[in-house]
Amino acid sequence: KDALLAVNDLRVKFRTENGVLPALQGISFQLKKGETVALVGESGCGKSVTSLAIMGLLSRSSTQMEGSIRFQGRELGKLGPKEMREIRGKEIAMIFQEPMTSLNPVHTIGKQLEEVYRLHTDLSKKERREQAIAMLKKVGVPRAEEIMREYPHQLSGGMKQRVMIAMAMACNPHLLIADEPTTALDVTIQAQILELMNDLKEKANTSLLLITHDLGVVAEMANRVLVMYYGEIVEEADVASLFTQPLHPYTAGLLRCIPDLDEEEKKRLDPIEGSVPLLGEVTEGCAFRFRCPLAMERCYLEKPPLSGQGTQAVRCWLYAKEEMAV
Ligand code: SF4
Ligand code: MG
C-alpha cells in the first residue's frame, strides 16, 4: 500500500488497419516513493507505450486500454482530460529523448518555463520569472537570464535537455518519467545529465521511472529493473541481482551487448541476433523463442508464466519447473 504508483495488469491494444494489435499484454509493477525503476528492452518492447499510458497520452480513438494505473491512490484511467492535465506536469512529469518534441521552437525558453508555473501555481508574473531563472540555475544552465530570452534552436543538445529537466522538475513532481533521456547526447554530457537527474530527484524525493535500452545507464541510476519483451515483463529484479545473475535468456543477451572499453571484452561482444517480433506476430508460446539459444519444445507451445524467486521474477520455462510438476 506504500506504492506511489501501482500498475496492475495493464493491457494496451492499438487499433490499426491490420486489425487490433497487442502492445502491452498485462504488465504489473509498483514504484515506491523515492525509488528509481528502470524499464529496459529494445525498441518495440512496449517501454514507451507504458509511459504514455501512465501519462494519459495514448490516443483514445486508436488505442484500447485495460487494467489499472493507481497513482497516489487515484485511478488515473478514471480521471477526465482536465484532471489529467492538472496532474501532468505537476505531480507526474516527463522528459523525452528528443527535447524538440516537448520544447516549442517558436517560444523563448523563458516563456515556456514560466508557462509551467502559470499552469500549476498561483505565482505572480514576477515570481514566475524569478522561479524560472532559479530553476535554470539549479540545472546548471549558465547565463540563465540570457538563456530565458533565447529560442530552443540556439541551445546545444545538452543545454536543451537541461531546460527539459528544469521544466519537468519545476513543480517538484512526485513521479518523473524519463524516456531515453540521454540517448541523443554524447557520453560526457550524458554522464552530467544523469548525475543532475539523480541529484534533483534525491533532493525532491521524486520517484523515477527510467526508460532506456542502455544497461550502463541502468547500473548508474536504478534500484530495480523491469526487463520488457514483446509487451510483457520478462524479468524483474533489483539492480545487483540483475547484473550478477540475470535469469531470463533475453536479459543475459542484453548484458552481453554492453559495450566495454576493454578490447578483450569488445571481441566477445555478442548482440542478440534477430529482432523483436512485430505486434500480433506471436500468438502462442514464448515470444522470445525465435531468438533464444535455450528454447525447448515447450517454449513453442505454451506461454511461460512470470514466476517469482524472492526479489527476482522471470517469465521463462527454464525457471518454472515446480509449476510443471503440479
Ligand atoms: Fe527461451 Fe523458452 Fe525461456 Fe522463452 S521460455 S526464454 S524460449 S527458454
Ligand atoms: Mg521508445
Automatic annotation (TrEMBL):
It is found in: Cell membrane. GO terms for biological process: peptide transport. Keywords: ATP-binding, Cell membrane, Membrane, Nucleotide-binding, Transport. GO terms for cellular component: plasma membrane. SUPFAM superfamilies: P-loop containing nucleoside triphosphate hydrolases (SSF52540). Residues 5-255 form the ABC transporter domain. It comes from the Bacteria. Its main location: membrane. It is a peripheral membrane protein. One of its GO terms (molecular function) is ATP hydrolysis activity. Belongs to the ABC transporter superfamily. PANTHER family: DIPEPTIDE TRANSPORT ATP-BINDING PROTEIN DPPD (PTHR43297:SF2), OLIGOPEPTIDE TRANSPORT ATP-BINDING PROTEIN APPD (PTHR43297). This is ABC transporter ATP-binding protein. It comes from Brevibacillus agri. The lineage of its organism: Bacteria, Bacillati, Bacillota, Bacilli, Bacillales. The gene is appD.
